Amino acid sequence: MNLLETIRIGLRGVGANKLRSGLTVLGILIGVAAVIVLVAVGNGSSQAVTSSIEQLGTNTLTVRHGAFGPGGDGGRTQFKDLTVDDAIALADDVLAPDVKSASPVVSAQAACTYEGTSYSTSITGTWPSYFEASNLRLASGTYFTNDDVTSSRRSVVLGQTVVDELFGTVDPVGKEIVCEGTPFTVLGTLEEKGSSGFQDSDDVIIAPLTTVQGHLTGYSSLDTVLVQAVSGSAVETAESEVYSILDDRHGTTDTASRDYQVLNQASLLSTVEDTNQVFTVLLGAVAAISLLVGGIGITNIMLVTVTERTREIGIRKAIGASKAAIMGQFLVEATVLSIIGGVAGVAVALVVTQFQIAGVTPVIMPISVVGAFAVSVALGLFFGSYPANRAASLRPIEALRHE
Amino acid sequence: MVPVIALRAITKSYGFGETTVHALRGVDLTVERGDYLAIMGHSGSGKSTLMNIIGALDGATTGQYELDGIHIDSLDESALSIVRNRKIGFIFQSFNLIPRTTALANVELPLLYRGVGRKERRDRAAAALASVGLSDRTAHQPNELSGGQQQRVAVARALVAEPSLLLADEPTGNLDSHATSDVLDLMDAMHAEGRTIVMITHEDEVADRADRVITLVDGEISAERWNRR
Question: Is A16 within 8 Å of chain B by CB?
């Protein structure tokens, strides 16, 4: 009685009741597929967020206007504005040797039209150094220059989404669009950066700071200053330089009552990655429970099978089947069910993950495929062993008498 | 020569204390090689219990049982399964073929559990089916066969492993008269080949086919006769 024969008998048992076998397989299939797909979704959303943060540049700091810390406004009655002079001070080579550039940023929502097509988006007013700091590359045309900023020229650079919405297939370079009543000349378009999953980073119009201030936002406080460090490893020291310069300029006496906040993209990235990992683990755990339920389904169906085939077991024992042979037969049946379920589950998961799920492009983790499959096989052995043992322990005389 | 069956002072009781039921009250029986023995008795006489003990499906409460010189009483479960496989061929009243399994595969089973290779198994099973006249039914499943055909498959299955003893428990109990005579003719033919047969029955005309008939009453052998022919 070798293994091959045992497997053959087990397979015949699986085939003998196709509907029941199919339903049991379905339980395992759903469990395996759920584990792989949900982990892939968690992983995919994590990668999307990570890459969108990386697109902003991990060697940048964002200085935001206003108080955000737990100290609130610290009893202050007035915030000092974040000004262009602050940005100039931050780029000081002596006081801030680790800061490569500091770009003041203001933004406004604006409805823009081109030949009757209208599209509402956000206009960012900044300096040319912003393009490098934000990792924005040109697809066509040119950036605006420092000269455009000082002269407040009405020139803009468009993100790809804005190009698609306003121009379709027409080349926008050199054309004129009208935003909130003001005409702008399109200097260039940006390379597509792709959707981050939550925010379309191509849905932007970038214009000289002075122009946006003059026509749209007015000359109040800047929204942010984008600070670029000289390298990724200099971000930490650049951060402390930014603090010391701005504390000095804003007369901050107590770090809890700062009227600005510095966001470090690198630390944000690690926070987001941690959060996403928890998210992925939770999704995986939910799916693992469904896999467990599938395993219990195997036990259930095998118990039914053993009861239903008590007489057959008796006949086999009378003919001379050993305890091991009967045990093997039912274990193989359970394992075959779980292997079929596992393989089908992997196949279904591979198909499902080709599609976007809830706006997230799933990214399969190979470990989840191997793991889910291995667990499903182990489930078959584990959950099949109790019914198999029960079958093998039946006394032939009683089993034969069973109707 | 060692007898095929040697039962000495076999008793079997169920339950304890006052509710104890004595199914067998001391049976002595010897069956020589080539014998054709019929065991008769009414229901409750203990003949099924005796058959289970002879078939190594159940153990005696006291007494000794040697099958082909092997002391059955002292064997554990796994050794018993080997004994059943090699020494005994069962034929049951209700045929007891494995459902949804072809006649050929059913007949192959004893050889399968013995570890005989696929090719040899197939050949020997086909030969056994041919010997019971079912060469053309090898691929049929039990529910596609008549009762008589099913019992002939069961006979083939009992024969295929060349056991020392054929043990038939009311083999014709579920058959019509035509199929009954078919199966009994088969048993006669096997007897003529020199096989040892023990058959349980409650029908006189079936028992008449055997050489030797014992009658059980209340767990004891009450009568024994030899049929001369």
Answer: yes
> Do A140 and A212 belong to one domain?
yes
Chain A touched by B76 (CB under 8 Å): no
List residues bridging with B36 in a β-sheet: B197
Residue contact B57–A396, C-beta within 8 A: yes
- Residue A58 resides in a domain: no
ipTM of the complex: 0.92
Q: Is there a domain that residue A34 lies in?
A: yes
Which of B52, B110, B161 is opposite residue A397, by nearest beta carbon?
Answer: B52
What residues in B contact A324, CB-CB < 8 Å? 78
Residue A28: closest CA among A292, A252, A277, A266: A292
Between positions 295 and 314 of A, the ones with CB within 8 A of B are 311-312, 314
Average pLDDT over residues A302-325: 89
> Average pLDDT of A227-237?
84
Q: A29-84, pLDDT tens digit by residue?
A: 998 898 888 888 888 888 877 777 776 667 888 888 876 544 444 444 467 788 88
**Nearest residue on chain B to A312, judged by CA atoms?**
B98
Question: Is some CB atom of chain B closer than 8 A to the CB atom of A14?
Answer: no
Low-confidence ranges of chain B (pLDDT < 70): 228-229
Considering its fold, how many domains does chain A have in total?
Answer: 2
Single out the residue of B219, B203, B138 nearest to residue B168, CA to CA.
B203
Q: What's the pLDDT tens digit per position in B46-105?
A: 888 999 999 999 889 999 999 999 999 889 988 999 999 999 999 999 999 988 889 999
Strand intervals (E) in A230-371: 260-264
Residues A137, A225 within the same domain: yes
Same domain, A37 and A115: no
Closest-CA distance of chain B to residue A10, Å = 12
CB nearest B98 (choices: A315, A320, A325): A315
Task: Tell if the CB–CB gap between B100 and A16 is shorter than 8 Å.
Answer: yes
How far does the CA of residue A395 sit from the closest CA of chain B (Å)? 8
How many other β-carbons are positioned within 10 Å of the β-carbon of residue A398? 12
Checking A270-276 for CB contacts under 8 A at 24+ apart, the result is A272/A46, A272/A49, A272/A50, A272/A53, A273/A46, A273/A50, A276/A42, A276/A45, A276/A46, A276/A49, A276/A50
Cβ contact, residue pair A318, B57, below 8 Å: yes
Nearest CA in chain A to B86: A320
8 Å CB contact between A82 and A221: yes
Task: Write down the pLDDT at residue A77.
Answer: 47
* Residue A365 maps to a domain: yes
Q: Provide the residue range defining the domain that includes A226.
A: 104-231
Q: Per the structure block, which two tokens stand in for A206?
A: 């970038």
- Taking one residue from A and the other from B, the number of pairs with CB-CB distance under 8 angstroms is 64
Residue B77 sits at the chain A interface (C-beta within 8 Å): yes
Q: Is B163 on the interface with A (CB under 8 A)?
A: no
Residue A83 forms part of a structural domain? no
Residue A275 shares a structural domain with residue A382: yes
pLDDT at residue B157, rounded to an integer: 95
- DSSP assignment of A341-372, as one string? HHHHHHHHHHHHTTS-BTTB-----HHHHHHH
For domain B35-56+77-226, give the CATH number.
Answer: 3.40.50.300
